[in-house]
Amino acid sequence: MSTQAAQWSVEDQLAGYSLPAHYFYDESVFRQEKTEIFFKSWHLVAHLSELREPGSFVTQEIFEQSVIVIAGRDGKIRAFHNVCQHRGNRLVQARRGSSPAITCGYHAWTYALDGCLRGAPNTQDVPGFKKSEHGLKPVRVETLASFVFVNLDREAKPIAEMASGAEAEIRRFLPDLDRLRLIEEVDVPVQANWKVIQENSIEGYHFDYSGPAHKELVQLIDFSGYTLKPHGEWWTYIGPPKKDVTQAYGLSLAGATWQTDWFFNFGLWPNATIYAFPYADMVGTFIMIPTGPETSILRFGYYGVAGRELPAVTKACIRWMNEDLGPEDISLNHSNQRGLHSFGFERGRYLIGEGISNKSEHLVRHFHKLCYDAIHP
After folding, report:
1. Mean pLDDT in the chain?
2. Peptide bond into 121 cis (omega under 30)
3. How many CA atoms lie within 13 A of 198 on its CB side?
4. CA–CA separation, 252 and 187 (whole Å)
5. Which domains does the chain have, with CATH numbers?
6. What is the pLDDT of residues 35-80, one digit of tens each?
7. What secondary structure does DSSP assign to 36-80, as a single string?
8. What is the DSSP string of 326-347?
């Protein structure tokens, strides 16, 4: 690696040169991102509807850390480190479920839904043992736009402050946020750095050139009006509807319902997106979960409206996302990751200029700056 490739100078940034290639595969960079970004950020866990009944829970892995988010009998949602306070055993293995209490499978220490230690076999014979001193350790939990987020950092800004104005913008396009239900969740392994995946999602430059699924998407929106807007630690990328569209995803729109006829995407630093595809009666989430310097899990969540039958067009949209657009993007991620190792590439040049707003990469530059500043305070 050359000295030039190992840094991202202010001069290079101002000249429009991108984050150097080694930031997408270097082990030391990845370790810094782990501690300075992911251990200090808000992570999207679930929709509120998944935590309505007392005892319903969802777990969230953040590298080797695990958090359990659980609904209490008092209606309050709490989050705890998913670890027994006896000998450090992982308490819950499942991603989702329901239980009247949390019981460790090692020595049967049992915790109430509020995290208090309710029972611990034979501890009555231990001098000075107080159950009140051995409850689960809490984790910060907050909501935004009816979605639940956790943060391992007690000093992090509240999510409403971090994403000021975001909820109102989301609700302009997604009217049924409060009435959603989980349809399915799909985890897809991706052989690419998490930033490669994020970059691909926040630029429209490739839409006309990269494959048939992207061209299909362009046919549903007025691509000339596609806008990408940074708002600090959140952003949007939005495409208005194209006039006179009568079918989508291979089906007629006659009789269909939908959240919006726009292509709407809200991104929250560092790795969560809430979105809706045009003419689909569902809200989607996708989360880029880093698992190594060059490996990730892409988690797709699909939420329909409770009490409303899922339209055939929406079912077709989900299939199209899983079988066409998603794989097309992931193939680009894989190819991009391999190319970043080339001796012939050290850094790129952003496509940013007058007259190309719908294809501009200014949001990629904004994201790169957030990443760089987080590990170079």
Report:
1. 95
2. no
3. 28
4. 30
5. 10-40+166-375 (3.90.380.10), 43-155 (2.102.10.10)
6. 999 999 999 999 999 999 999 999 999 999 999 999 999 999 999 9
7. HTGGGS-EEEEEGGGG-STTEEEEEEETTEEEEEEE-TTS-EEEE
8. HHHHHHHHHHHHHHTT-TT-S-
